[in-house]
Structures are given as C-alpha cells and as structure tokens.
Amino acid sequence: MATTAAGETAYDYVIIGGGTAGSVLAARLSENPDHRVAVIEGGPSDVGDERILKLRNWINLLDSDFDYRYTTVDQPRGNSHILHSRARVLGGCSSHNTLISFLPLPEDLTEWTERGCAGWDPQTILPYRDRLQTNIVPVAEADRNPIAVDFVAAAAAALDVPVIDDFNAEPFPDGTGFFSLAYEPDTGYRSSASVAYLHPVMDRPNLTLLLETWAYRLLPDEDGRHTRVRVRRADGSTTVVRAEREILLCAGAIDTPRLLMLSGIGPAQELRRHGIDIVADLPGVGENLLDHPESVILWETRGPLPPNSAMDSDAGLFVRRDRGRPRPDLMFHFYQVPFTVNTARLGYPEPEYGVCMTPNVPRARSIGRMWLRSADPTEKPALDFRYFTDPEGYDEKTIVDGLKLARRVAREEPLKSWLLREVAPGPHVESDAELSAYGRRAAHTVYHPAGTCRMGASDDPLAVLDPNLRLRGVDGVRVVDASVFPTMPTINPMVTVLLVAERAADLIAGTASGARA
Ligand SMILES: Cc1cc2nc3c(=O)[nH]c(=O)nc-3n(C[C@H](O)[C@H](O)[C@H](O)COP(=O)(O)OP(=O)(O)OC[C@H]3O[C@@H](n4cnc5c(N)ncnc54)[C@H](O)[C@@H]3O)c2cc1C
Prior knowledge:
The relative contact order is 0.19. This protein has helices at residues 20-29, 50-53, 58-61, 106-114, 122-125, 146-159, 193-198, 252-262, 268-273, 341-345, 394-410, 432-441, 494-509, and strands at residues 2-3, 9-16, 37-40, 136-138, 175-178, 180-184, 189-190, 207-210, 214-219, 228-232, 238-249, 265-266, 280-281, 293-294, 297-301, 315-319, 330-335, 354-360, 369-371, 382-384, 419-424, 444-445, 477-479. By secondary structure, the chain is of the alpha+beta class. Bound molecules: flavin-adenine dinucleotide (FAD). Flavin-adenine dinucleotide (FAD) binds at residues 16-22, 40-43, 85-88, 92-94, 96-100, 214-215, 250-253, 255, 259, 447-448, 481-482, 492-494, 497. Keywords: FAD, Flavoprotein. InterPro entries: FAD/NAD-bd_sf (IPR036188), GMC_OxRdtase (IPR012132), GMC_OxRdtase_N (IPR000172), GMC_OxRtase_C (IPR007867). Residues 252-266 form the Glucose-methanol-choline oxidoreductase N-terminal domain. GO terms for molecular function: flavin adenine dinucleotide binding; oxidoreductase activity, acting on CH-OH group of donors.
C-alpha cells in the first residue's frame, strides 16, 4: 500500500468484491510479492464463522444479514415474489450457496466462442480445472440419504437415464446421481472460494482486505483511466482507493452492472435521465440478464426421513427430451426437505416431513434486463428477469414437461413407497394449461443470475467487454464474475465462475494461451 499526494491509498490491483471470482483473483495476483493487491468487500469475514462455514446451514443464510435480498419488478408470466439472494460475506455466493460443482459442458463454451469470445473454447478453458483449489468431490457415502439413493434408482428406471458416479468425469448428455460438491466430507465444512483460495494466504503482506466496505463509484485518474474507486466504510466515512495497474470488478451479476451504471458507464440515454454524467455509452450494461428458472413439486413422506445429508439437496437428474442433441435440456434437484417458500404462499399445506423435485430450464430463452431506479447508490436496482416470456413458450413447456417427468419418477419404486401424497400442485392438476399456471406461479430461481456485462465480438452492440474481459471504451477496468457470461451454461455456474477467474489471472499476467491482444 502507498499513499498518494491526494491522500488516496494506492495498490497495484484493486479487486471490487471478495466473492467467488474475487477470492480467486486476490490469491492469484498476490502470488507475486511485488504486486500490492487490495480487495474491497461489502460483507464481513467468514473466518471462524460456523454459520457460514458449515455447508448444511446454507438455507438459514437466505434472507439473513448475509443476504443483499434483491427483489424483482412484477413478473406477469412468472412469480413476482422471488427473493434473489446474493451473499454479503467474504467468498460471496460461494460462502452461502450449496456448492454443487459442475464443469461447464464443452458445448456451453463453444457457444461462447460462436459469440466472438476468442480464447474461451473448451480446449483452452476446461484444462483450468486442474488449477481449481476448491475440494470438489462426489457427495460422500455417509452423506447419502437413503431416500436420495432411492430417488436416483427410481429416476434411472423411470426415465431410462444412466446413473452417473462423477458428473465431472466426462461430459454427459443426461443422467442421474449424487452431485459433486466443494466441501470437506469429514467436517461438513465448505470449500468455498474464500476458504480454498483466501484463507491460506491471508497473511501475505502484499494482500489487503478492506471488509464491510462498499464501492459505489469508479473515478478517472489524471490520465483519464478509470483506476480509482470511491468507497463507503461501515462507519459511514468515505474515501478513494486507487489502482496503479487495474481495477478488477468482481461484484457479481447484479452489483457489477449497478456500479458501472452509477459511474456513468452504461446505456447513455437511461443514465442521463437520472442526471448521471456519461463516461461511456455501453448499451449492454444490465442487458442479457440470464437465470435458471425452476418450479417445484412437493410430496409428503410417510414419516421422518433418516437425518444424514451434505446439504439436503445432494442428488439430481438431467434429462434430454431431444435425444438428438448432445446436452440435457431439463435439470432437476431432489430436495429431501420440503422447500415450501413458494407453495405455502399459494396456500398449499406445509408437510412436516416431505421431499420435492425442482425441474429447471438449463438454457432458458426468456432473457431479462436490469436498470438503475435512480442515481442514489443506496437504492437497489430494478431486476426484470422476464420469466416465461419467450415467444415460442419454450421455458414454460420445459417446466410443464419437468413436472410431468417428476411424477413419473415419483411413481417408480423404490421412491414410490416413501411418498404418502403429492401436496403441490396435487394430483388433480393434470392438464398442460393447469401445470403451466401452477408451475409459473410457484416458480423460483436456482439463484444463477449472470450475463449482465457480457463479453463478445467487436461487432456485438451489446457486448460490454472484449474477450480479454476489458471494458469497452474505458481504460483500466476488467470485469471478472458471472456477469461476463455471454450465454448461460447448462449446469450450475459456480465452477464456471472459478474457471473465468483463473483464466482472468492469466489474462492479467499476460500469460493466457489463445488470447488476442
Ligand atoms: C443460495 C444460492 C445457492 C447457489 N447454489 C449454487 C450451487 O450449488 N452451485 C453453483 O454452481 N452455483 C450456485 N449458486 C450460484 C453461484 O454461487 C454464483 O453464480 C457465483 O458464486 C457467483 O460468483 P460471482 O463471483 O459472480 O459473485 P459473488 O460470489 O456473489 O461475489 C460478489 C461479491 O461482491 C461483493 N460486492 C458486491 N457489490 C459490492 C460493492 N459495490 N462493493 C464491495 N463489495 C461488493 C459481495 O459482497 C460479494 O462478496 C448459488 C447461489 C445462491 C445465492
């Protein structure tokens, strides 16, 4: 750290957001003792905090003090009541998520290169898996609940899909099995980005963590590069932190575009309406809001279930309705607890003992956007996921198919004998129209917002970043988090975020293969 003549503290790299991607970058960039690295993180530390570190406690972190709790604008064809949890703690969402860990499928990355993202092909990106420090292992035998074991057997039999022992062993077109998780089976602790990347290096003299510190405006330096950031500390005081090399924006798919827009980087017309001075007219900032929408089908079980589990949703299912294609087009999580947040609101009973399946749309076609409501940095942005609005009705049909397939699994032994009755939507809800109406009203998010500062080709008018993750038209800033995704990977995206961050470290160091200047 150094102090400039203007009284600003200066580092080589300033990382905004010590979350999933930010933790990886902080560890990688500070490996070089000559690089002074600062992390500006809005939340507190996770060190020693069992509420965060114990993976199975994840569900209690939703809507807690560790959650920024974003809401959406009205969703006329979906559920307007979804609470979009985003973590406010070191490690970001990897500190309060379920740590399900899938490598992206090769075709997911090929899609990125088709969008002009040179250097993001599967041959270049997938080998970064060998650098990942999180402990990714299939759910341990001791954590495999008998009802989840029987779900896997029933899904394989009912839908004629293979049982997969390790979803990361090779790309899979469909299949069912226990997930791989980033955790320590012996203790039940997380192997989050913070635990795996930051905890071991926190004593590096060249790494500074500025916790409970909120970044709210990027500022230019004397040369016009945007390498300064105004922050507010927990006590309300403000200061400016400066990067002598680069600012790395890792605040996540909602807060990264929010900060850019507050800094005058975004759709000029809209920002002017809020009286924000324009630094760069980038119409793609906040566009391309992607997610995995899901719905839920709930059963009461014949009594209490055995207690063991890693995080209560340890197994799942991938289905390919179109068997001519290489990737699954429906995914299910199996919960061995009744996840009733949306069904209870609709008036369905909450069984004491129950399970559910949550079919989701792996590559949803309804694409949303987000925008600022005002120039006030404390006012939360508006999120409009436009759930179930794609003109072909693909997303809606996927959920209807999912609910029907879930029932087929539930009718199959050995799962069938565990189940007493279907609680929601209930067996009387049968037609496609009824299933769609229920499925959309009870819909939820898999908590995977992404895409709001996408990278892309130079002729893509909505691309915010070049394929080296540099902001278009603004010097000194890269974005490294889930907002860079041009399209949504088929699978749960955390590992893809980790791979993006590992790749970004090489791009910053100038050692990345396949990168164009
Ligand atoms: C409940 C839940 C369950 C999930 N389960 C899974 C799963 O099992 N598997 C999976 O693959 N994915 C899962 N996900 C999604 C996955 O966790 C995220 O996609 C991924 O972690 C996002 O990483 P990120 O680096 O983009 O953002 P984050 O990890 O959210 O990091 C952003 C960080 O920036 C900080 N920040 C934001 N704004 C500012 C600011 N202005 N100033 C300072 N700091 C700021 C935040 O506090 C946070 O630490 C889940 C998400 C949630 C919420």
